[in-house]
Amino acid sequence: MAERIEQRLEDRIPELEQLERVGLFTRKEIRAVLRKASALEYKIQRRALRKEDFINYIQYEVNLLELIKKRRARIGYSFKKDEIEYSILHRVHSLFNRATGKWKDDVQLWLSHVAFCKQWNAKHQLSKVFSTMLAIHSNKPALWIMAAKWEMETRLSSESARHLFLRALRFHPDCPKLYQEYFRMELMNAEKQRKEKKEFEQAKMDLGEFNYSEEILNGEMARIVYREASQKIKGVEFQLAVLSIAKLFDFTQDLQKEILESLQATHADDPLTWDYMARRELELGSLQPTEHCSKQKKVSEMAQREERCCAVFDEAVRAVPTEDMWKCYITFCLERYNRKTNSKELKQKRLERTLSVFSKAHESSLLSEALYKQWLQLLLDSNLSEKAVEVAEAASRHFSQSVETWQMRLQVLIQLKRDGVTQCFEEAIKHVKSKGTLPLWTLWVEWSEATNSKEDTEALYQRSIHATTPAQSVTMKEMYLDWTYRNCGYKKVKRLFTSLCENRPFSLDFFRKMIQIEKEQESCKMLHLREYYERALREFGSTNTDLWLDYIKEELSHPHGKPENCGSIHWRAMKMLQGDLVEDFVSKYTLLQTGHL
C-alpha cells in the first residue's frame, strides 16, 4: 500500500513544480499540499473504506482548483493549464469514479460528480458519467430528464436527447413527467430550427446543404409524442400540463387546438377542464392593443372578460354540479377579488359576484367546510355581520360533528358580541363527540373568564374536567389551576391542587405550575415544595431526569433546604430512571456538582 501511495504522490510532483515555477504557490505551500495529500491518500487506501474520506479528498482538490483559479486571476497568468489544472481534474474524476463504483446506490454522490463536470466544463467526462449513472439508476425518471436536458441545452444535440427520452420511456412507459419533457424538447428543437432557417433566409444564404423538414418546423414530432402519450396517460392534469407547454411556443396553434379538442371530448365532466376553459376567457380578451386605452376602458374590458369567465363557470356548475366544480368557481372569484385594483366599482363588483357564488353553492348544498370558513372571513372583512352569523349557523347545521365549524361559529358570535353564546356552546358540546371537544371547552372557559362571574367560570372548569376524556382533562386542570391562582389567590389554589390530585392523569406542567406558584410566595415553604416534587416524581420519576435534578437544586439553594437529602434523592433517581436516562442523569448530576449546570 505504501508503494502505491508513494507512486501517486510522485505523480503530483510535475504539477507542483509547475505551480512553484510560475509563482502561483510558494515552496512552503507546496510542502503543505504534499503533506495533506499524503494523509488523504492513506485514508482512501485502507481496507475499510469510508465514503467521508473520499468526499473530503474530493473537496480538498476542488478547493485547490478554486485557489489556483483565484491566484491566476490575481497575477494575470493563464498558461500551463494542461500541466496543472487538467492533472488535478483527472485525479478528481478518478476519485469520483472510485467512490461511485463503491457506493453505487448513493444518487447524491453521482449528482455531485455531474455538478463538478458542469462546473469545469468537462463535457466528454459528463457524457460518460450520465451513461454509467443511468445504467445503474434507470428507475429514476428525473435522472433521465436531467441527462436529456443537458444533451439538448448544453451540447445542442436533439438526436441524443431524443434517444435518451426514448430509452427512458422503455423503462417508464407511464411516466407523465417524461412525456411532458420529451414534448417540450421536441418543441424547443422545432423553435431552434425555425430561428436558424429565418437567420439563413435573412442573410440570403443558400439552404441547399441544410435540410429543414417542414414537419419538424411545424412541431409534428411533438404532436406524435402527444398522441402516443395520450393513449397511455388518461388524466386531465397531463392534458393541461402539455397544453401549457404548447402555449409557450408561438407556432403551435394547430397543436393547441388538437389538445383542447381532445380535452373537451375525453374530460368534459372534469371540473379541471371547465376551470381551464373559463380562465381561458381572461387570456383571449380583446384583439386590440391596450397600451393606449384609458384607465376606464381597461377596467371596463377587464370586467367584461371576468363576466365571460363567470358565464362559462355558470354553465359548468349546471353541467357538472359537484363540490369540486363549485370550489373551482369560488377559487376563481376569490383570486379576482384579491387582485389589486384602483377601481372601487370593479372591486365592489368582484365582491358581489363572489358572495353571490358562495350563496348559490350553499343553496346547492355543495359547499365544503373549508369554503364556509373563507365565506365567513370574507363577510366579516366586508362588515356584513348579520349575514356572517347566518352563514355560521348554516355551516354548523351542515357539519354538525365538526369541531372546527362550531369553533368558527362561536368565534363569530364572540367577535360580534352577540347573545346566545352559552346556548351555542351547549349545542356544540351536545353534537360533537367527547374525544374532540377540548378546543370547544378551552374556548368556552376563555370566553367565560372575560364575561361571566367567578362562580360561573369555576363551575364551568369543574364541569369541563368531568366532561372531557382523561387525556384532555389534563389541559383543563392546568388552565383551572392557573385561573384560580390569578383570580382567587394562593390558599384557594392550594386547596384546588390537593383536590385535583385525587384524579389522574396529570401532566408534568401541572406540577411545575404549582411549584412555580409556591416559589412566588413571600414565605416559600420547603415543606410544600417537597410535597409537590414528591407527587410529581410518583408520576414522572421514571421518565424525567430534569425533575430529579430540579429537586436536588431546590434542596441545595432553598434557605430551608437540606443538602444532606441530596444523596438519598440521587439514590432514588438511580433506582427509578429507566434505560439510557440513568446515564443522562449521572452526566448532568456530575455537571451540577462541578458548578457547570
UniProtKB/TrEMBL annotation:
Keywords: Nucleus, Repeat, rRNA processing. GO terms for cellular component: Pwp2p-containing subcomplex of 90S preribosome; small-subunit processome. It comes from Bombycilla garrulus. Its main location: nucleus. PANTHER family: HEPATOCELLULAR CARCINOMA-ASSOCIATED ANTIGEN 66 (PTHR23271), U3 SMALL NUCLEOLAR RNA-ASSOCIATED PROTEIN 6 HOMOLOG (PTHR23271:SF1). The keyword Transcription does not apply. InterPro entries: HAT (IPR003107), TPR-like_helical_dom_sf (IPR011990), Utp6 (IPR013949), UTP6_C (IPR056907), UTP6_N (IPR055347). This is UTP6 protein. Belongs to the UTP6 family. Residues 9-91 form the U3 small nucleolar RNA-associated protein 6 N-terminal domain. Residues 307-577 form the U3 small nucleolar RNA-associated protein 6 homolog C-terminal domain. It comes from the Eukaryota. One of its GO terms (molecular function) is snoRNA binding. GO terms for biological process: maturation of SSU-rRNA from tricistronic rRNA transcript (SSU-rRNA, 5.8S rRNA, LSU-rRNA). It is found in: Nucleus, Nucleolus. The gene is Utp6.
